[in-house]
């Protein structure tokens, strides 16, 4: 304390070596839990023994007993911090694990010890303490801690272990029966279903990170032939709609029965969750009506100069990259292009992601959003699969760092423009205009939190859709040179007719490019599934089945679009299947952005940005595949993301 002017910091606490020895000795004599439990998950032969611990056997590790055994800790009743001193060590380190060991040790070890040390420092630096009871403590019978003598130790520990085991057994039985009831939901309702794995439901492969959510739903689709099949998304009974005509009817004609998505939304405690994607009922309808005018053809025309300015930077960067032959990750390039567009159009400022892959805006958002951690996995599961989980844990739908970062940018941009009467032709300006008009009409204004939440939504949706569409199209073109020749010829002719200019109207002329984009969206939809929640009981047409209010409905876009009943030869990349003259698909089974009132509001902008990127790339550069045609997808994402990106050889095109 004297060295640091009375200040207590994290670093200062690390200097207190003897205090650390005392805490270690305390944890030896009085471990937080006197036992640890494990269950054998596969038969295990004990080393140097013929004993086999059978699968399902419960194993108890008696921490308290081991730590008070003189074979491992000489004179165990003596409180001796020095036994843990590295220079005079007097204990068996392999017998000391007060918080457990290995992957399932206590996750909060360091915080618990730190809090304890802070309390001790504050108390011992200011006050004296005198004992009023003997050194040997008599413990409450209901507490798990050290008994008062060696003989009592065995008896008390035995009783407590039994009570602990019985309690665990009772809790396990209650949980098991509860899960059995949950996982019998579809059987009780007479619905054909796929047998679940407790406690994962039908998402065991997702929980084990073996495949993504969309691929898992695709595989479940393949395991049934029914129009509807019951599944369990962890603990949530859901219906996969295998009939594309019924799926379209749910989204369009019978929308009033399925107008919500059934994802997590808490407008008051977690404003960022209350975006256009998640809002239910009338609140969604009101916001959709306000935002729809921002994605009209006129607004997209106004934004074309911004799109093209960013596109020119992309061309210049690729020109620099191809000075020397090399393989480049095309998905990463297109991602940086799209995020520069989004920064300008939605966030209201110019980023530099294309030239600088370490641009703070790009790195901060991509690293924070894609960070893999247990908490982020809980967030993802809570948002899409089990909203009650976020309500129970009181976790936010996004990492707090993301919320803070986005909110600070949007707050600054809105306040700066409103204060200085600055205007730009971008999405953020349209939100600012909506705020001003609401104020003038004495209506409720969009809050800054609402603006930030929806800007971030369009960042996530736009970044994934445009990036995936452009990069997957390039991937398919490299494996289908005849298609590449046709689309490139169309682009060259359009540019020649228009003096090299790319305008909103010129892009409309590119009919074959449009077919290519449609085919890409069939094979690689932006989201591999759509979800809806039944908001009032619904009788399935041509059936006696009733979908109950509150049931989640899954529309497996990827699975339907790869089903040969609706798309002949689905593995083949064939843009011509969408040509009106030679149409070879079922139009009622094609809705890559959803259908009906809750379809994707930004679909035209997403497709437009992808087309601009493709035009700029194909008009100037050659692309050569380095990967096989069939892509291996990442297991940790909801959208379809290629494992390791999409590396290609890029060279300057010679006309």
TrEMBL record:
Keyword Zinc tagged: no
Keywords, sorted A to Z: Endoplasmic reticulum, Heme, Iron, Membrane, Metal-binding, Microsome, Monooxygenase, Oxidoreductase, Transmembrane, Transmembrane helix
Residues noted as binding heme in the record, renumbered to the chain: 600
Location (main, coarse): endoplasmic reticulum
Membrane-topology descriptor: Peripheral membrane protein
Compartments where found: Endoplasmic reticulum membrane; Microsome membrane
Entry's transmembrane regions: 163-186
InterPro entries, A to Z: Cyt_P450, Cyt_P450_CS, Cyt_P450_E_grp-I, Cyt_P450_sf, Insect_CytP450_Detox
GO MF entries: heme binding; iron ion binding; monooxygenase activity; oxidoreductase activity, acting on paired donors, with incorporation or reduction of molecular oxygen
GO cellular component assignments: endoplasmic reticulum membrane
Cofactor requirements of the protein: heme
Pfam entry (one): p450
Superkingdom: Eukaryota
Family: Belongs to the cytochrome P450 family.
Name of this protein: Cytochrome P450
Organism: Anopheles darlingi
């Amino acid at each position: 304390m004297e060295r640091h002017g009375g200040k207590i910091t994290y670093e200062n606490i690390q200097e207190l070596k003897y205090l650390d020895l005392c805490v270690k000795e305390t944890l030896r004599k009085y471990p937080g839990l006197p036992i640890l439990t494990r269950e054998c998950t596969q038969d295990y032969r004990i080393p140097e023994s013929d004993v086999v611990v059978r699968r399902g056997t419960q194993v108890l590790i008696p921490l308290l007993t081991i730590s008070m055994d003189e074979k491992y800790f000489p004179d165990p009743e003596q409180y001796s911090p020095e036994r843990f001193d590295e220079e005079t060590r007097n204990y068996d380190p392999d017998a000391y694990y007060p918080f457990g060991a290995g992957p399932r040790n206590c996750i909060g070890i360091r915080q618990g010890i730190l809090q304890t040390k802070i309390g001790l420092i504050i108390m011992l630096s200011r006050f004296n303490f005198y004992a009023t009871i003997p050194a040997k403590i008599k413990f409450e019978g209901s507490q798990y801690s050290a008994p008062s003598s060696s003989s009592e130790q065995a008896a008390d520990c035995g009783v407590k272990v039994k009570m602990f085991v019985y309690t665990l057994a009772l809790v396990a039985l209650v949980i098991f029966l509860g899960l059995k009831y949950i996982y019998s939901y579809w059987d009780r309702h007479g619905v054909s279903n796929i047998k679940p794995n407790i406690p994962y439901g039908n998402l065991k492969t997702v929980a084990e990170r073996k495949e993504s959510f969309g691929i898992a739903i695709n595989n479940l689709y393949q395991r049934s032939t029914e129009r509807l099949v019951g599944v369990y998304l962890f603990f949530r009974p859901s219906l996969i709609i295998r009939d594309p005509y019924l799926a379209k009817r749910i989204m369009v004609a019978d929308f009033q029965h399925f107008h919500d998505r059934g994802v997590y939304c808490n407008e008051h405690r977690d404003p960022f969750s209350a975006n256009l994607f998640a809002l239910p009922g009338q609140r969604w309808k009101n916001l959709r009506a306000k935002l729809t005018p921002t994605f009209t053809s006129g607004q997209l025309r106004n934004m074309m100069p911004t799109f093209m300015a960013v596109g020119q930077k992309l061309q210049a960067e690729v020109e620099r990259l191809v000075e020397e032959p090399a393989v480049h990750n095309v998905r990463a390039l297109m991602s940086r292009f799209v995020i520069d567009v989004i920064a300008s159009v939605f966030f209201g400022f110019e980023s530099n992601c294309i030239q600088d892959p370490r641009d703070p805006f790009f790195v901060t958002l991509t690293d924070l959003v894609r960070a893999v951690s247990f908490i982020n996995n809980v967030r993802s599961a809570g948002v899409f699969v089990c909203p009650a989980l976020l309500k129970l844990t009181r976790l936010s739908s996004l990492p707090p760092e993301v919320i803070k970062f986005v909110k600070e940018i949007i707050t600054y941009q809105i306040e700066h423009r409103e204060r200085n009467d600055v205007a730009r032709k971008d999405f953020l300006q349209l939100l600012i205009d909506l705020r001003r008009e609401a104020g003038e009409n004495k209506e409720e204004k969009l809050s800054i939190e609402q603006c930030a939440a929806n800007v971030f939504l369009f960042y996530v949706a736009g970044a994934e859709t445009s990036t995936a569409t452009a990069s997957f199209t390039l991937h398919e073109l490299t494996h289908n040179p005849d298609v590449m020749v046709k689309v490139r010829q169309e682009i060259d002719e359009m540019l020649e007719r228009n003096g090299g200019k790319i305008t909103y109207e010129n892009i409309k002329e590119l009919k074959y490019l449009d077919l290519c984009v449609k085919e890409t969206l069939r094979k690689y939809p932006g989201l591999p599934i759509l979800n809806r929640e039944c908001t009032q009981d619904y009788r399935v047409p041509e059936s006696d089945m009733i979908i109950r209010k509150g049931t989640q409905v899954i529309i497996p876009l990827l699975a339907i679009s790869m089903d040969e009943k609706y798309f002949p030869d689905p593995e083949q990349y064939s843009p011509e299947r969408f040509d009106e003259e030679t149409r070879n698909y079922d139009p009622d089974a094609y809705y890559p952005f959803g259908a009906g009132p809750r379809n994707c509001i930004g679909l035209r902008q997403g497709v437009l940005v992808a087309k601009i990127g493709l035009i700029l790339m194909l008009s100037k550069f050659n692309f050569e595949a380095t990967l096989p045609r069939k892509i291996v997808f990442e297991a940790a994402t909801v959208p379809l993301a290629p494992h390791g990106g999409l590396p290609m050889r890029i060279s300057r095109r010679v006309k």
